[in-house]
Design brief:
Blueprint: E1 3-5, H1 9-22, H2 25-35, H3 39-43, H4 55-66, E2 74-76, H5 81-106, H6 113-129, H7 135-141, H8 158-163, E3 168-169, H9 173-181, H10 184-191, E4 208-209, E5 212-218, E6 224-229, H11 232-250, H12 260-271, H13 288-294, H14 297-306, E7 310-313, E8 316-319, H15 331-349
């Protein structure tokens, strides 16, 4: 592959100066790659933590290694960052498929410590979630996404969203019918008919879609980030459930709206010589069977009705092995709930008391 770049010399001069300041073997390598325009090597440069004996030297070299990773000046002939992202997405789906098979078999066979942790996590999640919310509670928490939906572009104004074709999967259609049928103004904007009371809105046949569709957004010089765009009414109701899960997590000390506690704990970890962990494809590796195994059955059914079981990739439809993807309105809250419950279960299993 040949790398073509429209390098702004001032940018690279600043980075070269930074290399001289750090003055390590890695910074010298980066300096020489910039000097001799070896940009293909530069963006593919990797760093291995286990080759370092101090956090300070690693952090300096990590900075200089990754500083250009998201720079838009690099253009690699013959490389499609979109194709790279989609290939990785498919690879993660294969991992999820393997996980689903493993969890199915694990339900039939005791696996010692793992089984005990899963049981503890299941109880924790049940305590946090509590009873399934009523239809009114869900509808009160529903909200519109700022991004694109299956057939609406990003930035579409609210008026058009509420008067356009309401795409929805067949499994979630009853939510759409009920929500619009209980909202006189919304019903009238779609039908021109004034309501005398609640009803069930009849969705046009072309409103029903098979699932979400895959797209990509820029991430770094080597790959894009995959996002699955949900049907309009699916994500509207998904965000309602996401808001409720977020609210119930807050009563257990997990405030997803405030990062102060995370920042304080990260600072404590740094002082203690510890490190935080950034999981690769964290959202995309919440497999279907993991959710089935951990969440109460009524919550699992409700969330499953709103998820997209299939994703349109190009002209093909692929079955989702993950429970919910990036783009789903409750994915962040669901993964946060599961991570919190699993960590709580592990600490309890090894005898560490963490409070509530």
């Amino acid at each position: 592959m040949t790398l073509h770049t429209t390098v702004v010399s001032a940018d690279l001069r600043a980075i070269s100066n930074l290399c001289e300041t750090i003055n390590s073997a890695r910074s010298l390598s980066v300096y020489l790659m910039i000097k001799y325009s070896e940009f293909t090597q530069l963006i593919n440069l990797e760093i291995k933590p286990d080759e370092y004996d101090s956090a300070s030297s690693f952090s300096a070299d990590y900075l200089i290694t990754s500083i250009l990773s998201k720079w838009k000046g690099f253009k690699i002939k013959g490389l499609s960052t979109k194709d790279v992202a989609i290939d990785k997405w498919k690879s993660v789906e294969e991992t999820n498929r393997t996980t689903n098979c493993r969890l199915r078999s694990q339900l039939l066979h005791d696996n010692g410590d793992v089984t005990r942790v899963l049981i503890r996590a299941r109880r924790k999640i049940a305590d946090i979630l509590g009873p399934l919310p009523s239809f009114k509670e869900v509808s009160d928490h529903c909200s519109w996404s700022k991004g694109a939906t299956f057939d609406l572009k990003r930035g579409t104004d609210l008026t058009r969203k509420m008067t356009s074709r309401l795409t929805v999967t067949n499994e979630a259609a009853w939510y759409a019918r009920a929500i619009v049928g209980h909202d006189p103004l919304w019903f009238e904007s779609l039908t021109g008919i004034k309501l005398d009371g609640p009803c069930s809105y009849i969705l046009p046949n072309d409103s029903i879609v098979r699932g979400n569709k895959l797209t990509t957004v820029p991430k770094n010089s080597k790959t894009d980030r995959v996002i699955c765009i949900e049907p309009t009414m699916n994500i509207y109701v998904q965000k309602g459930f996401g808001s409720i899960i977020r609210q119930r997590l807050r009563t257990w000390g997990v405030n997803l709206d405030d990062q102060t506690k995370n920042q304080q704990l990260a600072a404590m970890a740094a002082k203690a010589g510890l490190a935080t962990v950034d999981l690769s494809s964290a959202s995309d590796t919440i497999s279907r069977m993991l959710v089935v195994d951990l969440l109460p059955i009524d919550w699992t059914v409700a969330l499953a009705q709103l998820r997209c079981a299939e994703t349109k990739v190009g002209d093909s439809w692929l079955r989702q092995e993950k429970f919910s993807s990036m783009g789903n309105g409750y994915t962040f809250e669901l993964e946060s709930l599961i991570f919190f419950a699993l960590l709580s279960a592990v600490t309890s299993e090894v005898g560490i008391v963490t409070g509530k």
